[in-house]
Each structure stands twice: as C-alpha cells, then as structure tokens.
Amino acid sequence: MILGRKVRLFPSEEQEKALWRSAGTARFVYNWTLARQEENYNNGNKFMSDNELRKEITLMKKEDEYRWLSEVSNNVAKQAVKDACDAYKRYFKKVSEKPKFKSRKRSKPSFYNDNMKIKFKESSVLLEKVGWVSIKINQIPLGKKYRNPRVSYDGKYVVYGVEMEKPELELTGESLGIDVGIKDLAVCSNGKVYKNINKSKEMRKKEKKLRRLQRQVSRKYEMNKIGGKFVKTSNIVKLEKQIKLLHREISNIRSNYLHQTTSEIVKTKPSRVVMETLNIRGMMSNRHLAKAIGKQGLYEFRRQMKYKCEFNGIEFVEVDTWYPSSKTCSECGHVKTRLSLSERTYICEECDCVIDRDYNASINLSRYRLAA
Ligand SMILES: [Zn+2]
Predict the structure, then answer these.
(1) Of 81, 162, 200, 330, which is the most buried if we count CB atoms within 10 A?
(2) Strands 2-10, 131-135: parallel, antiparallel or unpaired by DSSP?
(3) How far away, in angstroms, is 352 Cα from ligand 1 center?
C-alpha cells in the first residue's frame, strides 16, 4: 500500500536559493518542452519522444546562455520533460485539456528528486544538489521505499509516496457508529464527541481577521481605481500576501484537525465503523449549509475514515440515508414519523427516554445490520 505523505522543510538561506533554482529550472524545462512539442506539431511532425528532447537539452547545456541548467540535478530536467510529454500525450489522447504553460506567478513551484537518491534521517532529508535539509523531527518512517518524491516549494514541503506494510491491529469487536454533522464534526456511539473546530475561539478570531483584511483590500482597490481600471499598489500586494498566508493557516488547522480526529477514532480499534452516506445533493441545495459543510470538511472526513479503516483492516460501512438513524429511539426501537432539524434532543414518546439527537443517531448506526 502506498501512502502520500508530506513533510515540512527548514532550509538554510543557501539551500533555499538552491531549492528555488531547482524549481525554476523545472518550470523552464517544462515550458520549453511544451513549446517544442507544439512547434513540432504545427510543422506537421509526429510527437517527439522524451529521449529526443532530453538530448536537445544536453546540447543546450553546452551553450553559454543555458549553462545554468547544469547547476541543478539532471533529474530535475529529466522529470520535467517527462511530465510535459505526459501532459501532451494525455491531450492528444483527448483525456485532458491542452497543457498550459507554468507561469512564474500562478504555478506551484515544484521539482522532482530521484527516488533512489533521496535519503531521510530523523531530522533531515538529502536532496540532490541541495544537501541535507532540516525537516520537522520524527515525521518520516525510516528505512522504507519512497515513491515519486517531489519537492513542492510553495510552503516548503517535500511530498512523497511511501510504501507501507499493513499493520496487524488487534480489533476489539466493537461496531462504532459515527454521526457527522454541522453542530459537531462527529459524535460516536462510544460517547466521544469531536467538536466543530470552526466554532473554536481561535478559529473565529482568525476568520474575523480574514474578513477584515478582505474588506480592506477591496476598499483599497476601489480607492486606487484609475480610469475604471484597478491598480495594484504595494499596499494591496502586502495585504493580499497576508490574506494568502492566513488562508493557508486556517486550512492547515482544519486539515490537521481532521487527520487527528480520524486517526484517534481508528486508534480505538473498532472492528467496524458505520457512517451514513453523505447526501450531497440534499445538503448542497442549501447555500448556507453547503458552506458550513465545506468548512467542516465532511467529505474529506469520510474519505479519511474510509482509507484509514481499510488500511487497518476495519470494516467500513456506509448506510443509505433511508435508514432512520435519527428518528429511531435507541432505547426502545420506536420510530418517530417526524423529527425536525431544530430538535437537538431526542425525546421518545414511547419510553420517555431523553437523549442527545446525534448520540442517539450514532448508537443506531452502530447497530445497523445489512438486510435487517
Ligand atoms: Zn423509546
């Protein structure tokens, strides 16, 4: 099984320059390859192979003008040619759109590192022509086969695939129901509640700050309009950079929280996890709800639960929305005909039991039987 991983880099100033150099070379070679393929095609010739193009690059390196291409690892150019050729091939086979040139501004700077040459230690990684770069400690499973390592340089990360053996978990036999939602992220039938992180004080503060910055920027744009055209002042550039960073920070917090939560659930080693199918169309028809779901990351939560269960040999069951997980009383089995969304507490008219709505639903989910 191959898992995608990423780890934060902490390069020195010198290494940072080398990283940018590699990313810049990758972009240059990628664009150059696209342009060559296009020129060649317009001249009525057949698709050019990776090999032909790489030979041209080798010749180019001997010219003074392109000598800088040799300053980075050969593999950077090699992979960039391959990526561009693959993208062009996909376009020819009509499986994807015509590949675009990577712009300095919009494209994510990244480059490839040979997977045989990349080496990890507890607190550093060896990158070609860059050297040992510090990384966040104890993030890397050591002594594994690493696949397709790429250094993405927007947030200073190295992204790679790693071959992992399936762990042998001893499961408890428990069937765990999980009710996901907007109020709380997940309520589990074992009583654990994972709150909505967006409601935390810290996140509210950050989102408020984000809105304030966004207002500031649009105001500045209006103020600096010249002849109906928007002008980007250095102040605007500064504000936009702040916004971008804050966006990233917020999305990182959300993403970390999801990973933490799904990992923690899996660590309780249930034999089975039962969730309700997310009703995409129904939920997304409500704009307000759609936004909240997006922030909560419910689809990502489901995706992570599913793969983490599969990885650990836990059965993952998705229950159709017709299953009355919310309307059924988990005490006596009575099924309500009506239950509005605003009723946060389940009050049974049969047995008088009073229970939190989501907790009740999670218990019912945990008891779900196929063809019951
Ligand atoms: Zn009841």
Answers:
(1) 81
(2) antiparallel
(3) 6
